[in-house]
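debug: dumping io for the single-chain case to check the tokenizer round-trip. Nothing else runs in this session.
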Amino acid sequence: MPRHNDVVQRTTIILPEQLKRRTLEKARADGISFAEFVRRAVELALNEPPSRASQRKRHAAIEAMRAFRDDAPSGGPADLAINIDEYVYGASGRAKS
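debug: decoded output
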């Protein structure tokens, strides 16, 4: 929970309907607000040591950025920033090898 002197920012996230419903249900069951649940989840994720899978995803993202950097022959696709997940992970959501 934010301390008295912490600066906080309102943030908008977009969740699939089912994920939001499950998150609300879990927050209610834990007796906390949706916002507090999200804050705690983010803290847990940030404090967790990186898994091998997340390291592979990070490596895949770096390789994708290298392939599309400005000095690359093609310069990369114009929609790279918008569709980075699709370029890195593909439709399956798993890092490409």
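debug: round-trip ok. The chain has two domains: 17-47, 52-89.
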